[in-house]
Fold each of these.
Amino acid sequence: MAQIKEWLGITAHDNLPARVEQAMIDQQNTSEQLIGWIQLGVVLTFGTVYAISPKTFHPDATFAPVPYVLSLYFLFTVFRLVLSYRMRLTGWMIGLSIVADILLLFGTIFSFHLQYMQPPSFYLKAPTVLYIFIFIALRALRFEARYILLSGLAAVVGWGFMVGYVVYADDMHNMVTRDYVHYLTSNSVLIGAEFDKMMSIILVSLILGLAIVRARSLLVQAVSQTQAAQSLSRFFSQDLANQIKSSECDAAIGDVVSREASVLNVDIRGFTPLTKRSTPEEQIALITQYHARIVPVISAYNGHVDKFTGDGIMAYFGVLAESDSHGADALRAMEEIIKASDRWNVERVAEGLDPVVIHASCASGPIVFGVIGEEHRLEYTVIGDAANVSAKMEKQTKSEGVRAIATRETLEYAVKQGYTNAQTRWELRPNRRVAGVDQPMDIIVLKE
């Protein structure tokens, strides 16, 4: 029973997180607004057709109810549309709305025999009854089978009353016929034809309801996966998240690409002593402010954050896609990072806080970018000399008495890629011993 209620949309899914359920509710609210606009279009279309069509009712007819019924339905539709934007429509409000739709539609059809001065059986042949299928189909937009079934039930009951009224009003008992030709060429009633109409309404409602039950299950999965993807994408750079989502195949161990790129490491010098003088809340606030200032700089220069390691940031340039400016982008990002840290320190000093020394190191060269891990825990990573050297050069900034340092290869890449005024910004320091690197190497340091 509980499963049936879930299928019909009467109860929420027990296994869905609240945020996923809320996302579905938001989608349904949007659908209700869309339904209102479509229904407004329907009533406007019907009203326009009625207004421009030649009037063929009897000239002695003193009352034309159709314009009044259409006007009432127009006002009701506008009211419901406005209400859907101002609040979330509850189940009983939507149910009443569905019943009102059917009543107004059938009220319009019922008025035909009055306007055209014909016996009640006249309205049974009105093609306007086909509009009921539009109203039933509209309810599919909410992905709740109960409203489709309610529309079908209301339509069948309503049409049954319409047929019953015709039979009841037939005092002479000569309107009901079994002759199909006579039925088509007169105002007589063929019970079988009316039964066919009601059966069509029932079957269409049931088929649409079944389709929506299946579609709702897919909707739940889609919303759940979308919510999960949005949450998980916050743990990756946006470009990497997009690459994962747009990939034709699932990520697998051994998926690798190799290309030339630049790897950047940023760190806070003396972070451990700094944390000993602060509370845990202050430590987190410091890291948050630090990331808020550095990460946008990396992104502005086409870089992508690979990981956060406490107070460290590892980023790469030209890894996710081939880049003809990865070296130049990395050096420009390093310059801007130092400027951003200077601006941050001005703010901190003004607030009576200690300044924070940020330093950065970068290396360039061939890298391998791929998936590592095991079946249930995968991770994208960068492997290569550039990644290793960049990480090992981090402490070299203190030895050199600078805040930004890079390999000579990075500068060579950058110059080839259009980086100008390198000599005025960077100083070459050859044959430097870097901890963890076997051979002496040429480095460049940012002039300050």
Amino acid sequence: MRALQFTEYGGPERLEWGQAPEPHAGPGQVRVAVRAASVNPIDVKMLSGAMAQDERPAQPVLLGFDAAGVVDEVGDGVEGAAVGDEVFGRGSGTQAELAVLDAWAARPPGVDWAVVAAAGVAGETAERGLRLLGVEAGTTLFVDGGAGGVGAVAVQMAVARGATVVASASEANHPLLRDLGATPVLYGEGVVDRVTDAAGGTVDAVFDVAGKTPAEDLVRLVVDPAQVVSIANFGAGSAGARVTGGGDDSRPVEALALTASLLADGRLEIPVQTFAFEHAADAYRTIATGHVRGKLVLVHA
């Protein structure tokens, strides 16, 4: 099969759409013929070597952590999934012709392949952050970075729960945030004052998905610093905030089921930009700028 891969750390120029061994579904997994797969910031970090301990990979590294496609192989112990099912979910090495998923949900009827492909990582991460913060009806939430992939999903999930949402973005993305149900504020220096003005005081919770505002500033927005959760600032704990990278905090099956339900009901929309797999380097160059609206998705022609 063909898969997006690299053999040396660096930038998008290191990417190759080339041959790789076929993966197979193990116990509790399904394999899909990939229709689309999203690009996430962690993919860029892997490519750059930021997460590596060695100077060079020992073998080609495959990229991608979520995808959508048609099940063509079912592992032992799997119930509720069969060959031919259309699903989306989370796995590894998903930017390929074939990918193994560890957690998945049925593709809602009528939802575009690119949209559901964008929902795996973003949906799980958004659900996790909102759950850790206890966001519910009546909560006032600030999402720092509301126009990106995770941020846009988190805003809509919070609104669906009945929360009041303030979210930061560039001025060009303020109309998008309003459409998603949030009150927009400009990101950057002075954002704490702008959020306070928009919310009429402190907020109940802060979900930091961008990692650009100092945690010391974000904790000023809440009564309890632990009501700031970050997925992007791994030093936020020094200010009393919480950092989550998944692990025991993650409930992927529950999160994907919720995401599928919101997509099916029209309460969740995911803006996407699509790129052919052969032009994946262009998607990686775009996401590396840090100014992405919605999700970037690779699609098979």
